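Milestone 3.1: sequence recovery, worked example.
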């Protein structure tokens, strides 16, 4: 017999809170790149490294992240992420002088180390704590929190840094946000340490029960890289994630390169991208859990993402700000919608391969491309212009779309669940409130 518990929602909340704070720190400086450039007197490319430091940290330490997840479990992994997120925020308290941009980068990198366990965690937590018809939604909600965090950075840039010409005002605003983030991340770390649990008493799904009962070692990377579906989805996700992440990083620079020093346009563009990303990251996984049409939903999201990016290019070409806003709405919805379901689909096609490894490899390779693509894109905008740079991003996203069409869509976890569904009954526990810990 398998069972799900109400306290699974507490586990989801703590994971989402931690990941939200990690993402906020990761993007908080690129969303105000013009402010950072003026205060620290650095280049636009240098500011992009405040975000891609996370990609670098993930790529360097991903092996240790997977090891922590597999050997220590999800409680140790999330505690690790929350601790480094707080430590990075604390280090940045010493970066407020104008000559200490290097300290800022150190703080960003330390905070980003938490990503090595937090980014592969959602599909693993979903399979350990949630029923099979909830897993995509769990991953989607977490991805929505990623997007919410980035959206908050654009809102903060308008509310807090209204006077971006006065250096003293910038210093005070940076001090305020740094102290607030340090306090909030410390509270988050304490909550995770006190209340987060590794696993429930009984498996939440038949697929998870079969995995536990089999006891087989399915962690050979050869099994992973000989899986055609995984390789096709991997390529699709790499270009989806890299293009989406890069466009978010250079959005401030992109809008200002066409519409001038228009802070309102930057804020509206960034907020629309993130809000629609949140909506897409939640709605698309819900549709996937409800209808289980993996191939159809994935391909529709990917094609419409490409079309929306072409629309963004067209809007910028004709300098139509309203058209740009509308294009960003659709791009945010579909590109984040696909990204939110990709890791859940990967877990399905690689079942019973360990989720931490399959997701870890996926994010590490995406981080590698991101390390190259984000600063390259920023440099290209300054040299060849925004139009040709966007064409490059469209080509890369299209390569991912072609790869997605080549997948065979052999959904192993779904098949296991369906083949055994008549043999066992899922019982939803009603006597375990969310705050009851065992």
């Amino acid at each position: 017999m398998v069972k799900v518990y109400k306290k699974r929602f507490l586990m989801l909340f703590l994971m989402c809170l931690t990941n939200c704070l990690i993402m906020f720190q990761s993007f908080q400086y690129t969303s105000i790149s013009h402010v950072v450039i003026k205060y620290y007197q650095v280049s636009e490319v240098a500011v992009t490294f405040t975000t891609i430091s996370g990609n670098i940290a993930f790529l360097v330490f991903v092996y240790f992240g997977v090891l922590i997840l597999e050997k220590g479990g999800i409680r140790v992994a999330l505690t690790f992420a929350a601790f480094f997120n707080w430590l990075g925020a604390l280090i940045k308290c010493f970066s407020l002088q104008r000559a200490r941009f290097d300290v800022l980068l150190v703080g960003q990198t330390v905070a980003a180390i938490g990503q090595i366990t937090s980014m592969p965690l959602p599909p693993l937590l979903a399979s350990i704590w949630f029923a099979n018809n909830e897993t995509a939604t769990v991953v989607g909600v977490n991805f929505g929190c990623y997007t919410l965090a980035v959206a908050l950075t654009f809102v903060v840039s308008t509310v807090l840094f209204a006077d971006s010409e006065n250096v003293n005002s910038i210093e005070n605003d940076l001090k305020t946000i740094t102290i607030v983030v340090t306090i909030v991340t410390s509270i988050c770390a304490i909550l995770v340490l006190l209340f987060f649990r590794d696993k429930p008493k009984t498996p939440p799904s038949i697929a998870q029960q079969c995995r536990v009962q089999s006891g087989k070692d399915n962690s050979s990377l050869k099994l992973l890289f000989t899986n055609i579906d995984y390789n096709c989805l991997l390529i699709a996700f790499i270009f989806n994630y890299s293009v989406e992440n890069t466009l978010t990083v250079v959005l401030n620079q992109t809008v200002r390169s066409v519409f001038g020093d228009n802070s309102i346009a930057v804020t509206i563009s960034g907020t629309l991208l993130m809000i629609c990303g949140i909506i897409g990251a939640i709605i698309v996984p819900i549709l996937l859990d409800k209808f289980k049409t993996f191939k159809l939903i994935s391909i529709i999201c990917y094609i419409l993402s490409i079309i929306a990016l072409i629309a963004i290019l067209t809007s910028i070409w004709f300098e139509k700000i309203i058209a740009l806003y509308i294009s960003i709405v659709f791009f945010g919805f579909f590109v984040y919608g696909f990204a939110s379901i990709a890791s859940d689909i990967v877990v399905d096609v690689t079942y019973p391969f360990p989720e931490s490894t399959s997701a870890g490899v996926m994010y590490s390779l995406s981080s590698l491309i991101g390390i190259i693509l984000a600063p390259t894109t920023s440099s290209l905008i300054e040299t060849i212009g925004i139009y040709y740079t966007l064409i490059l991003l469209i080509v890369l996203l299209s390569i991912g779309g072609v790869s997605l069409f080549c997948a065979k869509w052999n959904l192993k976890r779904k098949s296991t669940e369906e083949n055994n569904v008549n043999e066992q009954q899922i019982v939803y526990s009603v006597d375990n409130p969310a705050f009851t810990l065992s």
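The two ends are 19 Å apart (CA to CA). The chain has two domains: 1-198, 221-429.
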